Amino acid sequence: MHTSAVEDYLKAVCEIGRTEETVTTSALAARLDVSPASVTGMVKKLAVMKLVTYERYYGVALTNAGRRIAIEVIRHHRLVETYLHEALGVPWDEVHAEAEKWEHVLSEDVEARMDEALGHPTNDPHGAPIPTPTLELVEPDWPPLARMDAGTKAVVAEVSDDDPELLRYVGGLGLYPGTALEVISSAPYSDGPVTVRVLDGDQRGAEHAVGHRAAAHLFVRDVK
Amino acid sequence: MHTSAVEDYLKAVCEIGRTEETVTTSALAARLDVSPASVTGMVKKLAVMKLVTYERYYGVALTNAGRRIAIEVIRHHRLVETYLHEALGVPWDEVHAEAEKWEHVLSEDVEARMDEALGHPTNDPHGAPIPTPTLELVEPDWPPLARMDAGTKAVVAEVSDDDPELLRYVGGLGLYPGTALEVISSAPYSDGPVTVRVLDGDQRGAEHAVGHRAAAHLFVRDVK
DNA sequence: GTTAATTTTTAGTCTTCCCTAAAACAACTG
DNA sequence: CAGTTGTTTTAGGGAAGACTAAAAATTAAC
Ligand SMILES: [Mn+2]
Ligand SMILES: [Mn+2]
Ligand SMILES: [Mn+2]
Ligand SMILES: [Mn+2]
């Protein structure tokens, strides 16, 4: 088996690779809250273990073996988040921190039982897709709310899950995955707020000014 | 916070202290599957942290601070075992290994939610008492079945939880905590089997010869 | 009451994962 | 294309937790 440090590194490579072309040492250091020198050291070990390919100054990429482990950990993480939320009522801003620990200790047997108990969910409480048991994962790249024009109707697809305060804020506005909304006004190239009307859920009809930072971490899919 | 190594040591001191007068280095080494030299090193660190008192060649004892941590970990362990068994249907011979890992990562919030979801259970699937939220724990020392005389009627109180094979064997005989039985024949000072009639549960009426090792790890309370 | 066997401790290492400070390198900038 | 800036690597260490081998203390055996 692998240490949880190894699992966290591989997961981070996978997650950064979702948006960035190349995964750099400093991007990993920032995400894992670790010094760049530590990343260099660990990445060299991962390369020896054939879990990543790595060329100095050119970044890191997962091998097939490394990707399998990364997706396994992501499956654990998102399944645990979903289980904590659905079965135990843990609020959506707290599940991430707990899952960050559980993902490393969950057995395959209990993973399967959670999946079964939940009826094989496809998305976690923040809208992110849960990898299949055979470790397939497609992560669509929804545009952030911040980039939508006034007049657009859209549905919340996914919210970044690692900032509890942001999640409480967004939740307070009634903007959960699946919630429909209409963009009232938007200031695309500034850092101003995006005003939306909520069309769904407990805040149905309400109009909210969504701060820029939140709008950048809230992803939507268009509705024709 | 403490490392899981620290938590495991404190738990082991507490558990050995349940039956033994003094907790020796070698007893800890055997239970934790670690060399005696490693135990000496760790125990010195625990003494510096004021979690145990320790005198060379005379063994280890928990301080109040150390006992609190130990019982907290035991509460986590037994609550997780119960939750896995009741809520997810994990068989009673598998819950221990999983709980051994989960006990170190469970937050107080999720602990409370599991407790609530289960209706504040008092005993884990093996019959061991679950410490209260305020960390009170009384562990009665039931006599083992191996020491019961022929003719005695008794109820299964607790079964050792760390040997899956033994649990499968005992479970196959229908002997779960709460099951009533009658001792048909017993060979107290030999290592022969104890023959019992099951008075309860799915094996009601059956007669079984319980092997000596199992009878030594199966604890009962008398019934008048 | 010595000697022998057992238990415990000391001494010296190893591995894993992280750190800081300084040197090396790559990429802009004018 | 020389200088500035930012990134990455090297060099040197540290904390945890474990190990082996050998010394010391305790206990058991003649
Ligand atoms: Mn993690
Ligand atoms: Mn999530
Ligand atoms: Mn443990
Ligand atoms: Mn148990």
Characterise the protein shown here.
Two copies of one chain form a homodimer. Helices cover about 40% and strands about 15% of the residues of chain A. The first copy, chain A, is globular, with a radius of gyration of 19 Å. By secondary structure, chain A is of the alpha+beta class. In chain A, helix 1 (about 5-20) crosses helix 4. Among the domains of chain A are: about 5-60, Orthogonal Bundle (Arc Repressor Mutant, subunit A); about 145-220, SH3 type barrels. In chain A, strand 5 (about 195-200) and strand 6 (about 205-210) form a beta hairpin. The model of chain A has no long low-confidence stretch (mean pLDDT about 95). The complex binds manganese (II) ion (4 copies). One manganese (II) ion binds next to helix 4 of chain B. The first copy, chain A, binds a DNA duplex (30 and 30 nucleotides) through helix 3.
Could you list some keywords that capture this structure?
homodimer; 224 residues; alpha+beta; Arc Repressor Mutant, subunit A; 5-stranded antiparallel beta sheet; two-stranded antiparallel sheet; DNA-binding
Strand order of the largest sheet of chain A: 6-5-4-3-7
Name of the CATH architecture of one domain in chain A: Roll
Oligomer: homodimer
- Helix percentage range of chain A: 40-55%
SS elements, strand count of chain A = 7
Helix and strand succession of chain A?
Answer: HHHEEHHHEHEEEHE
Q: Roughly how many Å is the radius of gyration of chain A?
A: 19 Å
**Largest contact between chains:** A-B, 18 and 18 residues
Low-confidence segments of chain A, ≥5 residues, pLDDT <50? none
Indicate the mean pLDDT of chain A. Answer: 94
Largest sheet of chain A: 5 strands, antiparallel
In CATH, what is the homologous superfamily of one domain in chain A?
Ferrous iron transport protein A (FeoA)
